[in-house]
Design goal:
The protein is α/β, with parallel strands linked by helices. The chain has 3 domains: about 5-290, Thiamin diphosphate (ThDP)-binding fold, Pyr/PP domains (Rossmann fold, 3-Layer(aba) Sandwich), CATH 3.40.50; about 315-470, Thiamin diphosphate (ThDP)-binding fold, Pyr/PP domains (Rossmann fold); about 495-625, Rossmann fold (3-Layer(aba) Sandwich). Helices cover about 40% and strands about 15% of the residues. Strands 7-6-8-9-11-10-15 form a 7-stranded mixed sheet, sandwiched between helices. Strands 1-2-3-5-4 form a 5-stranded parallel sheet, with helices on both faces. Helix 10 runs antiparallel to helix 11 (about 215-230). The longest helix is centred in the first third of the chain and has 19 residues, at about 25-40.
């Protein structure tokens, strides 16, 4: 007999709403058990999803989804939502090529009302849906579920400010999971939360305000008493100042508290704010004890937990950056490190431990992070902003206006450049070379391997203008980084030839490789007998070497793990035109479409950016200019 008999009867939330209230707790237990077994077999986000099981059950039980809209902020806590909305049997394909996404996607299900993956967008989107419903005369709710971390972003407060004066049916659920359930979250607080969300309380408050307004001293006295009484048990003042009716905090794992409160809220008019307290990793002791380690684990045995690999893993680019940051901070007291809430992901744990006074986590506030760095630079410090490529997009105005125009020496360490695998299009660093190289004063470096990453970071740090160093997720070619900070065999903007085609009088093809695609390009070049240059910089370009390579070859091929439109290949085309050199050029990079989630190697093969794909593209385009390599050929890499 199946262990999950209740869960197997749920194919959509309509099935859930037919259950008796007493069946919901056993269902939540089955859902949590299924979630743990599923994620442990595929990998994915775990701690955050274990923490939202009861909240997900309650929301779909009380509200008429998908007619009522739920918008999940970030979206890495939506696995219970996916399981209850008809995707239980597809969970085995989670985050795999052709499988379901680890984040909400509108194309995947009508229950995914808004695609999310970047933080702090839910309130804005839900408010738009609520206002649209009002304008169209439709009776529906819009619910934004946002975490306490996402509430640190300015966009969330911009939306709150707008929503507080909008006459619409909006519910913001603050999923507060950064602390243990505190003493006020208990039977007394459950009663008060239900009381404050009830019709009688809401009506009485409105009537009282109308009656007492004729006697201003009594009205102000009553208002102060109400705020003081509620302040004893809830931090209501801030959100009520925004125009919301604040309810909570309540235990987000207690269905007997969640469901009556949500049922009361469903009948209220105007913007509502429900504060629930949950625990990351709830129900799985190992994840409760270490929610960070279990935030996004790979495959593991739930009975054993995450086990360290027996063989030492390859050094990742993130680790190279983290070690460089500590080494440079040891040398230069002006260095300060900044992260927008990505300490672990950006490799800054050791830096924070060793240099706590020079470490700044500004929360999920990318715009602030960049302008904060600009202010530090104005005062003679040397800020290093560690940020994912996809998240720097959010601070583009600050990058231009506050850093580049003032030509301030800020280093941007751009992690997750290129494709990122299982996280998909929302997290891919596909556009950084295109959107950065057009900005005056800003240089863009793209190391080919771990050693160059460290060297280029040092080069960037020693500049007196802004520089971005972009590097991918995971490990590279395995080229050990030189631990010396003085290992700088190249200057700013300098390229290097790494392979020369045979000297038989033919001109042939030259491959210009930007970043880690150098190694795939070298493998393709062996079969093609093509020359290869390691570009290292997308801006500035090495015009002397470009002129030399272009003059000695019949055609050029550019390689980059970024978008072709406006990218490094486009920079080469522009430079050739400026130099008055006209020749065939093939630009290979990410195609003009969003690349979804999947194994990175399979994705690169699918779009033709592995060595066989690169070779095939070059042979198709320049069939008469290439030939097989011979054993006598040698690489000069």
């Amino acid at each position: 007999m199946s262990m999950n008999t209740l869960l197997e009867s749920i194919n959509d939330p309509a099935d859930l709403r037919r259950l008796q209230r007493t069946q919901l707790k056993p269902l939540a237990e089955e859902l949590r058990d299924f979630l743990l077994r599923s994620v442990s077999s595929t990998g994915g986000h775990l701690s955050s999803n274990l923490g939202t099981v009861e909240l997900t059950v309650a929301l779909h039980y009380v509200f008429n989804t998908p007619h009522d809209r739920i918008v999940w902020d970030v979206g890495h806590q939506t696995y219970p939502h996916k399981i209850l909305t008809g995707r239980r049997q597809r969970m085995a394909s989670l985050r795999q090529l052709g499988g379901i996404s680890g984040f909400p996607q509108r194309a995947e299900s009508p229950y995914d009302t808004f695609g999310t993956a970047h933080s702090s967008t839910s309130i804005s989107a839900a408010l738009g849906m609520a206002v649209a419903a009002r304008q169209k005369g439709e009776d529906r709710h819009a619910i934004a579920v946002i975490g306490d971390g996402a509430m640190t972003a300015g966009m969330a407060f911009e939306a709150l400010n707008n929503a507080g004066v909008a006459d619409c049916r909006l519910l913001v659920v603050l999923n507060d999971n950064d602390m243990s359930i505190s003493p006020p979250v208990g039977a007394l607080n459950r009663y008060l939360a239900q009381l404050m969300s009830g019709q009688f309380y809401a009506a009485a408050k409105q009537v009282g305000k109308q009656v007492l307004k004729v006697a201003p001293p009594l009205f102000e006295l009553a208002k102060r008493f109400e705020e003081t009484a509620k302040g004893m048990v809830v931090p209501a003042t801030l959100f009520e100042k925004f125009g919301f009716n604040y309810i909570g905090p309540i235990d987000g794992h207690d269905l007997d508290s969640l469901i009556p409160t949500l049922e009361n809220i469903r009948h209220l008019q105007g913007p509502q704010f429900l504060h629930v307290v949950t625990r990351k990793g709830q129900g799985y002791k190992l994840a409760e004890a270490d929610p960070v380690a279990y935030h996004g684990p790979g495959k593991f045995d739930p009975a054993v937990g995450i086990v360290a690999p027996t063989a030492p893993p390859k050094t990742t680019f993130t680790q190279v950056f983290g070690q460089w940051l500590c080494d440079m901070a040891e040398r230069d007291p002006r260095l300060v490190g900044i992260t927008p809430a990505m300490r672990e992901g950006s490799g800054m744990v050791e830096f924070e431990r060793r240099f706590p006074g020079r470490y700044h986590d500004v929360g999920i506030a990318e715009q602030h992070a960049v302008t904060f760095a600009a202010g530090l630079a104005c005062e003679g410090l040397k800020p290093v902003v560690a940020i994912y490529s996809t998240f720097l997009q959010r601070a583009y105005d600050q990058l231009i206006h506050d850093v580049a125009i003032q030509n301030l020496p800020v280093v941007f360490a751009l992690d997750r450049a290129g494709l990122v695998g299982a996280d998909g299009a929302t997290h891919a660093g596909a556009y950084d070379m295109a959107y950065l190289r057009c900005v005056p004063n800003l240089a863009v470096a793209c190391p080919a391997d771990e050693r160059e990453c460290r060297q280029l970071l040092t080069t960037a740090f020693e500049q007196d203008h802004p520089v971005a160093v972009r590097y991918p997720r995971g490990a590279g070619a395995g080229v050990a980084a030189n631990e010396s900070l003085d290992a700088l065999p190249f200057a700013r903007g300098e390229w290097r030839r790494v392979r020369q085609h045979r000297a038989d009088g033919s001109r042939g093809v030259a491959i210009l490789a930007f970043g880690t695609l150098l190694y795939a390009g070298l493998r393709a070049a062996e079969s093609l007998d093509a020359s290869v240059a390691n570009m290292r910089w997308a801006k500035p370009l090495d015009l002397d070497l470009l002129r030399e390579v272009a003059s000695s070859h019949d055609a050029l091929v550019t390689l980059e793990d970024g978008c072709v439109q406006g990218g490094a290949g486009s920079a080469v085309l522009e430079a050739l035109q400026q130099l008055g050199l006209f020749m065939p050029v093939l630009c290979l990079g990410l195609p003009d479409r969003f690349i979804e989630h999947g194994d990175p190697g399979k994705l690169m093969s699918m779009i033709g950016l592995d060595a066989p794909g690169i070779e095939a593209s070059i042979r198709t385009r320049f069939a008469g200019m290439v030939q097989p390599s011979t054993p006598a050929l040698k690489s000069v890499a």
